[in-house]
Amino acid sequence: MGENTTTKPQFSVIIPVYDEAANINSTINHVAEVAQSHTVEIIVCDGGPGHETIAAIETPGVITIPSKPGRGIQLNTGAAHASGEILLFLHADTRLPSTAFQDIAHALSGASVAGAFSLAIDSSSIELKIIAWFANLRSRLERLPYGDQAHFVRTAVFRSLGGYAPIPIMEDVAFFKQINRQRLPISILAGKVTTSSRRWDKEGMVHRTLTNWWLRLRYAMGARPEDLVRHYRPHDSEAGQ
Fold first, then answer.
1. Under DSSP, is residue 11 helix (H, G, I), strand (E, B) or coil?
2. Can you tell me where the transmembrane regions are (predicted)?
3. Which residue segment(s) compose the domain that 138 sits in?
4. Measuring CA to CA, which residue among 50, 54, 49 is closest to residue 15?
5. Tens digits of residue pLDDT in 112-125
C-alpha cells in the first residue's frame, strides 16, 4: 500500500471486524486509495465465528489475524502485530478523508501524540447531521473521541500506555481518558471520517441515540462494560464492531 520505499511502514491501519465479509474488500481498497505515497500496512483482526471476513479478503499483502472476540481485545491483537510508526484504528464501516494520512502525519509532527478525526454520518438526514454535530462538539470539549472517529496514536505511546482496555465496549473512551490523565496532547482534526448510518437505520434514530447517551452515562457512573455491551448490540459481547 503506497510506495514501498522502506521495509518499515509509516502507518499501520488496524481494522477490527465481525461478520464484515460483504464490506471488507471495499474498506481495504479505500485505505489503499487514500494512502497515496504513504507507506501503509493493513491489518484485519477478525473476531467473528469461523473468521469468515478474513476468508473473503481478495487483496494480497493484507495482514490477517484470527482473534478472540471483543473489540478491545481485537484492537490490541492487531496493534501487537503492527510495525508502523503510527497506528490508525479504523472501523470497517468508516471511510477516511482523502488527505487522512497527510493530516495525521502533520498532527503528530508537533506536540500531539494521538488524536482522531471529526465525524460525519453517511446520510442526508438532517437529524443525523445534528447528531454528528453534537458528537463533534462533545469530542472537542471532553477530548474523548469515539472509535468511529478513527483513533490514531504513535505506536511507542500506545504501547507505553498498555493499549486499549480489553473490554467489549467503551474501550475508546477509556483509552483517551488514560491519555488525558497523563496530560498528553491530542488533536481532534477538522477533517471528517464518514461512518455508515446502518445502525441508526436498523434500530431507529431516536432509540439508537438515546441508547448511546444512556450507555455513556452508566459507564461514567461505574457500570461494567461487560454489562453495558448487552444493550449496545446483542453480538457485541463477542464482536469487534
1. strand
2. none
3. 11-237
4. 54
5. 999 999 999 999 99
